[in-house]
């Protein structure tokens, strides 16, 4: 790719990911729906199967799954720099917002605002739309539909992060057994502009930092280093996304660096804004050490996920050509549909739909996405306005 073409690609990638960072409300499952609509349906940067395989990979890895999917799309589009650009565009809007909350608006009660309620209903519509599209492609037929339903049932009855990981693993084993005699379905080739040598380097750096930062922290008593270690370990060891990272960060920061009320105020703000919930770390870092602390915290908590995706992708897209790997992926993809179905009910439906009027707004927003094909920003604005209107009724 020529320099001018590469620059245009990177600028387009940043613009699109920044738009998603400004409009993607509802948590990691909803983010996958936004990504699917923008990257796959509208721009066709990947095909459905490749996107589903990328989602499956990121479900297996620790860290912020939705952010890792965005990084993976960026890597496929424009190499490691594309992954960095995609991450920056999606993450920086909420980093800036959370830093401002920490410096100026800590303790502000925004969770009860009408427009926040409307955005929760937007998330219901987005996930329902994503569920419809992914279910038709990844859970076709009685067997895969059964896997999806069993996965949803297990996640609803056993709502833990590790339970979700076990469900995905069990679905992979089921796919391996059920489709052991099937010929692999050829997916459209996806070039990964990262060498295996660089990938091994990323995985090695991930392990060195995970083992070395705690030791370095003991030797060198520096506040920024202690913060980097705490956030890096949280990003490297948590499965299940932003909600699961809460107890890890609470043990590290309360009461050592801030009070419990301040901690929960920031967590409430993180749920009310677009973008990845891991930017809660930006709030904590800013409360601990201003803008510099926010930068350290943001880099620390997202770096493990970036290194893992960059390290795994070159091997992942080679391994999946194996019939056994494709059988595993078939089962995992059906389980992801089931997990999406469970998330549509809890936490999205249970927290957003409290009255018939809420359900009516969700139906209107779903129709805007599925049948009127309106852009996501229009749906978000309509949902926010609708939430305010519902508060007046």
TrEMBL record:
Q: Which UniProt keywords apply?
A: Cell membrane, Membrane, Transmembrane, Transmembrane helix
Q: Which GO terms describe its molecular function?
A: chromate transmembrane transporter activity
Parts of the chain that traverse the membrane:
84-108, 114-135, 147-178, 198-219, 291-316, 328-345
Q: Which is one Pfam family of this protein?
A: Chromate_transp
Q: Extract one GO cellular component term from the record.
A: plasma membrane
Coarse class of the primary localization is: membrane
Q: How does it sit in the membrane?
A: Multi-pass membrane protein
Going by the entry's taxonomy, the superkingdom of the source organism is recorded as Bacteria
- Family matches, as InterPro entries: Chr_Tranpt_l_chain (IPR014047), Chromate_transpt (IPR003370)
Q: Tell where it localizes.
A: Cell membrane
Name the protein family: Belongs to the chromate ion transporter (CHR) (TC 2.A.51) family.
Record-linked PANTHER family: CHROMATE ION TRANSPORTER (EUROFUNG)
Q: What's this protein's name? A: Chromate transporter
From the broadest rank down, the organism's phylogenetic lineage runs: Bacteria, Bacillati, Bacillota, Bacilli, Bacillales
């Amino acid at each position: 790719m020529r320099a001018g073409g590469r620059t245009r690609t990177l600028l387009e990638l940043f613009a699109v990911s920044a738009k998603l960072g400004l409009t993607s409300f509802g948590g990691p499952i909803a983010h996958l729906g936004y990504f699917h609509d923008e990257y796959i349906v509208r721009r066709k940067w990947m095909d459905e199967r490749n996107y589903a395989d990328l989602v499956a990979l990121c479900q297996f890895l620790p860290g912020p799954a939705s952010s890792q999917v965005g990084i993976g799309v960026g890597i496929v589009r424009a190499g490691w720099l594309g992954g960095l650009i995609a991450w920056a565009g999606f993450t920086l809007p909420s980093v800036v917002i959370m830093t401002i909350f920490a410096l100026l608006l800590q303790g502000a009660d925004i969770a009860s605002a009408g427009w926040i309620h409307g955005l929760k209903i937007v998330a219901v519509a987005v996930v329902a739309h994503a569920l419809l599209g992914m279910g038709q492609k990844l859970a076709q037929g009685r067997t895969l539909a059964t896997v999806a339903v069993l996965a949803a049932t297990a996640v609803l009855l056993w709502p833990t992060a590790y339970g979700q990981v076990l469900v995905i693993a069990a679905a992979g084993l089921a796919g391996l057994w059920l489709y052991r005699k099937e010929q692999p379905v050829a997916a459209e080739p996806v070039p990964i502009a990262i060498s295996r040598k660089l990938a091994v380097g990323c995985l090695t750096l991930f392990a060195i930092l995970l083992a070395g930062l705690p030791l370095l922290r003991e030797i060198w008593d520096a506040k920024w280093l202690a913060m980097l270690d705490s956030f890096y370990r949280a990003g490297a060891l948590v499965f299940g996304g932003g909600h699961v990272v809460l107890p890890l960060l609470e043990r590290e920061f309360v009461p050592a660096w801030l009070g419990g009320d301040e901690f929960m105020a920031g967590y409430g703000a993180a749920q009310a804004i677009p973008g990845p919930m891991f930017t809660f770390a930006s709030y904590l870092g800013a409360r601990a050490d201003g803008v510099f602390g926010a930068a350290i915290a943001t880099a620390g908590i997202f770096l493990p996920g970036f290194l893992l995706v960059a390290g795994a992708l070159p091997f992942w897209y080679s391994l999946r050509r194996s019939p056994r790997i494709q059988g595993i992926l078939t089962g995992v993809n059906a389980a992801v549909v089931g997990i999406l179905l469970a998330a549509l009910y809890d936490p999205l439906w249970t927290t957003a739909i409290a009255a018939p009027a809420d359900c009516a707004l969700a139906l209107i927003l779903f129709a805007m996405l599925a049948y009127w094909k309106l852009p996501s920003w229009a749906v978000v604005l309509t949902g926010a306005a609708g939430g305010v209107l519902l508060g007046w009724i």
